[in-house]
Every structure is written in structure tokens, then in C-alpha cells.
Amino acid sequence: MSSSKHSSNQLRVGDSPLVKWLLIGLTLFLTAILLVVPLIAIFQQAFVEGAAHYFNSLIEADTLHAIGLTLVVAALTVPINLVFGVMLAWAVTRFEFPGRKLLMTLMDIPFAVSPVVAGLLYLLLYGNNGWIGSWLYDQDIQLMFAWPGIVMVTVFVTCPFVARELIPLMQQQGREDEEAAVILGASGWQLFRRVTLPNIKWALIYGVILTNARAVGEFGAVSVVSGNIRGETNTLPLQVQAQYEDYQAAAAFASASLLAMIALLTLLLKAFIEWRQERSLKIEAEKERQVTQ
Amino acid sequence: MSILIENISKHFGHFQALSPLSLDIHEGEMIGLLGPSGSGKTTLLRIIAGLEGADTGRIQFGDRDVTNLHVRDRRVGFVFQNYALFRHMTVADNVAFGLEVLPRKERPTPTEIKNRVMHLLEMVQLEHLASRFPSQLSGGQKQRIALARALATQPEVLLLDEPFGALDAKVRKELRRWLRGLHDELGFTSVFVTHDQEEALELSDRVVVMSNGHIEQIDQPGALYASPNSRFVFDFLGNANVFDGKVENGKWQNLQANIVLPNGAEQKDGQLYIRSHEFFVSREPTVQANLPLRVIAINPIGAEVRLELTPIDWHSNDVWEIDLPHKAFDKNGFEKGQTLYVTPKAGYFFAHDAQQPVLLNWDQ
């Protein structure tokens, strides 16, 4: 009795108002100088020479080309990794096979390895003097220093996102729903479209958003394989660097502001999806509570 | 439709889930697969459905060999332990699923599907829940919807995996009776898996008792109860007390305790299995037996009072359980901690070298 009374009178760490406000203040301060201020600065720097200059620098031919190339790369990368990610998640959650654990570990390599290294590896393999590249060169196919190479490294760098979102969900949901559907006579495609897909819908969309954000923003790996040819193989992040190195700071920040806006949009979408998921869970819980009462 | 299972076996890695076993299920029969977890009962059910492939043997539905037929084409109804209702579909859409995925040529028109679904929902008495989602249903309701969904395509074979496992006792009893009624009315062949002996005995036409991947006994519930043919079946059907005895001077002796051999019993050492209600209870030893026990718990259960007892000066691996009618209990007025003596009226004797028991009676 006396010991419990004693402990209930004790303050836990963080209960003291001083500690509490110190921690909150410090967190807010660090968030501001590390995240918020740089973000605002991008837009401030972009408009430092006026709005007209901002828009003019965006419609400059090389920048426009960079925007176009970036969108093309994302438009190719996202579907490839969408299909690949679903396949991968399906394989490791629905089948038992030797090397399954290894595959799940290998899947994270793009997260673990520096993108520059990934770029160099692709250059080594597919460059004109590379193992596969030299053969391709003889067939008159050029992958490196051209858009196909950029797409290839971007696919590499972004390939875990979709699978990483799907695997825990599919593991948790198990395979009973799918077995039930097959027993009821569903074909493979009917099973996927009517049962599997609705179950993983939101996780899939979330994975796609992350893949897209990373595909648009990738710098290191793309930088190695693109060859930095302005108006040809420069994506938007590379264009930002090129402009900055040319002492066109305002133009560089104008391009950067586009990337920042894509990032903000991504966060917004992410927040929206999380809110949707949470709401549907809450509604379900609420309904379940009503039923049991 | 009859189901013929011939020499089916299955292993997972090094684990032998099913030793080659055969089973003949008649048309319109309701079969309960009863056994502890790991006995292979669910594996057998999944092999019948086609969800698992067997290593050896074959399966026939009626005259049709379905051994190599895909799950999709076997056309069985299957009810999962956790119902496996599609959570993003309404109750009506769940029930309609089997009809809507039919190939275009066989598929009924949308109005027909709608009518069939309503008819099925009426059959399970849940037509008012058609537009609800599975998360809004209680366990018993989910179970009925799962059954309606399984029956939508009019399968001739219905397979159920622990159908009442997740329900509370009252709902379970109700659903059991209702399922039996539905089975008799619609005339399909049913196989269900359970670990609950009461459920198996109450619901089945024949019970298949399984352990360690093989069949221990196949019998009608009454026959199974009256003549269990192995120690396992006896143990699993429950409520038996075991007396391990050595023959000395016409008695089975266990330390200080003994039971007189009845007329005609073989003079062999072995184990005597006595059901909890096959006893006479007294405050003194009788001429037939000297089995002192101490009362450690008294539980009134329904029409009877169950006494839990531990041996005094003799050995038994388990606590003994004895069921007395309230009248007999009240007359004696037993209390916790008291010593009492029991005398068996009937029991099953397994000699040490025998697989089959001998039924013994002490009643004159």
C-alpha cells in the first residue's frame, strides 16, 4: 500500500512543466530551422528577381525539356514498379519457396545502397564498355547517357516502395479471402480484381505516391548515368544543379520550387490517404461497437 | 454426392500430416472429423476441397475422379473457420459472388442473381441485413452469411472448418441445430471439422476420430460412445478415469488401492477406464473395491454435480472426475477435503499387451 502511494506521488520524467515545455520548444525550433525555413527560402529565392523572371526561367527551353523528361521518367517508372511491387509482394506473402527470406532482404538493397553507387553499377554493366553494354553497343542500342538509362536507375532506386507498403498488409490479411474466392469459382483475374485489389487499394496508392515522389526527385543515380547533357538528358534535379553552377541562382531556385511543390503535394496526398484509412477504421470500429451492444 | 477417399497422404516438409488413409462418405451423410489440433483433420478437409494437393491417393465425388481437378472446378461449398467474408462487399454482394464469377454462358441474369441472393438470405433468416457490411455483423450472423455464400452455387458437397469454433455456447448450440436442419432439408453431403466431442457426437451421422494423421475410428455417435476401440478414442471422448492395476489374488492392485476382478475377466495387468458416471460412492470401502479419494472440488453442472478427486495412498496421473445426480449428492452431503470411496459399476479394460478394450460389468 505505502509503496503504491509513494509511486503515485512521484512525477514521471517529462511530467514536469519545465521539461515538457523545453522539449516542445526545442523540437519546434529544430523543425523550423531544419525544415520550414529552407522550404520557405526556396520560394523566396525563386522570386528574388520578380515573378516575371520566375516564369521566364521556367519556360526556358532547357528547363522545359528537363520538366518533360522528368515527367516521362516518372510516368514510365511508376507503372513498372507498380506491377513489379505487386508481383513481389504477392510472391513473398502467398508462396513458400526456398530463398523467400533472402528475397525480402534483397528487396531493400535500393534503400541501403547509395544511389550514386547504383548509378555506377549500371554504368559498369550497361555502358558501352560494360559487360552487357558492349554487346548492346554492337546491336546499336544505347542505354547509358540517354533516357532509357535514367529510367532504369530510377526503377532501381524506387523499386521497394510499393512492395514495402503491401507486404505487411497482405501478411496480416492472410490468404483466406482469396481461397474463399477461388472455391466460389473465381478465375485468377476475377480474384485479383474483385478481392485482392480492393483489400490492398489504399496501401497501393500510398506506395505509388512515394514511388512517384522519389522518381521525380532522384539525383545521385540519375546524375551518373545521364551524362548531364542539357536539353537532352538533364532531369529537373540535374537542371537545378546545372543552373546553380552557372550562377543563375534565381532560375535554379525556380526549378527547385517545382520540386518542392511536388513534395508538398505528395505530403498532402499522404495525409489525405492516412485520414481516409483512419476514418474507415474508425467507422468500422464504431459499427462493430454498436453491433456488440 | 458421395465422396470416396482412397489412400490419401500428405506431408509438409518432414512432418507427416496424413498417413495414407481411406474414407467412404455416403450421399447425404453428415460426417464429423474429430481430433485434437495437429491430428490432420483440417488438412484432410482442405484436400477434399482441393485447397491442398495430396501426395498420394485419389478422391472421387460420385463417379467423378477429382484428384487432379482444380479447386475452382470442384464446385464444393466451403465455410472457413473465420468466415473469410469479403470485407469490402455488402452481405448481398458476398452471397452473390459465386454466381457473379460464373462464366458468362452459365451466369444468371442480374435480376435472377438478385432473387437467388434474397432467397438465400431468407433461408438463413438474415434478409434484413442485405446491405450491411461484414464488420457490422455479429459472429453468428457472419457464420450464417458465410454459409449462404457457400450454398449460393448449389454445391452438392459442403465442407466446414471448425464452423462454430469462434461462437459463444448458446449461439453455437442454436446454429448447430439449424445447420443440421438445413442439411436434412437440402440433402447435400457435409463434412465438418471439430475438436469438440460434444459437437461431433450431436451433429454427425458418423464421426471420424483422428490422431497423428491417421483415422482411429469411424462410427456412429452411439456406437463410438459405447465401444471406443482404442485408448486414444477413450481419452479423447473424455470423462474417463484411469486405474492402472497389477493382478494380485484376484484383484487389480495399485499401492494401497484395489478393485476386485469381475467374473470372467482375464487375469492380466492393465488399465481400467471408467466413465465419470459409472460409479457408486460411499464413505467406506466395499467388497468390490477399495479406492480412497479426497474431494478437492465440487462443481454443480446442469443435472449433475461433478466431484474432482485425488487418490489417497495410490497413484493416478490425472485428477479423477465423478458425476453424481443432485439427489445422491445431497443425500451424502460431501464437502471439500473429505475422504470417500468409489466402486466402479462398469468399465473398459485395456490389458498391457492389447490394443482393444474388454467391457466389464460388476453389476449383479
UniProtKB/TrEMBL annotation, chain A:
A Pfam family it matches: BPD_transp_1
Superkingdom of source: Bacteria
InterPro entries for this protein: CysW_permease, MetI-like, MetI-like_sf, Sulph_transpt2
Sequence ranges assigned to domain ABC transmembrane type-1 in this UniProt record: 67-270
Compartments reported by the entry: Cell membrane
Topology relative to the membrane: Multi-pass membrane protein
Keyword Phosphoprotein: no
Main location: membrane
NCBIfam families: 3a0106s02, permease_CysW
Function comment: Part of the ABC transporter complex CysAWTP (TC 3.A.1.6.1) involved in sulfate/thiosulfate import. Probably responsible for the translocation of the substrate across the membrane.
Assembly, per entry: The complex is composed of two ATP-binding proteins (CysA), two transmembrane proteins (CysT and CysW) and a solute-binding protein (CysP).
Protein name (Swiss-Prot/TrEMBL): Sulfate ABC transporter permease
Organism: Marinomonas pontica
From TrEMBL, chain B:
Domain ABC transporter: residue ranges: 3-237
Keyword Transcription regulation tagged: no
UniProt-listed PROSITE patterns: ABC_TRANSPORTER_1, ABC_TRANSPORTER_2
Gene3D superfamilies associated with the record: P-loop containing nucleotide triphosphate hydrolases (3.40.50.300)
SUPFAM superfamilies in the cross-refs: MOP-like, P-loop containing nucleoside triphosphate hydrolases
GO MF term list: ATP binding
Metal-binding found in the keyword field: no
InterPro entries, A to Z: AAA+_ATPase (IPR003593), ABC_SmlMolc_Importer (IPR050093), ABC_transporter-like_ATP-bd (IPR003439), ABC_transporter-like_CS (IPR017871), Mo/tungstate-bd_C_term_dom (IPR008995), P-loop_NTPase (IPR027417), Sulph_transpt1 (IPR005666), TOBE-like (IPR024765)
Keywords from the UniProt entry: ATP-binding, Cell membrane, Membrane, Nucleotide-binding, Sulfate transport, Translocase, Transport
PANTHER family the record matches: SPERMIDINE/PUTRESCINE IMPORT ATP-BINDING PROTEIN POTA, SPERMIDINE_PUTRESCINE IMPORT ATP-BINDING PROTEIN POTA
NCBIfam families documented for this protein: 3a0106s01 (TIGR00968)
Protein name: Sulfate/thiosulfate import ATP-binding protein CysA 1
Protein source organism: Marinomonas pontica
Lineage: Bacteria, Pseudomonadati, Pseudomonadota, Gammaproteobacteria, Oceanospirillales
Name of the gene this protein is made from: cysA1
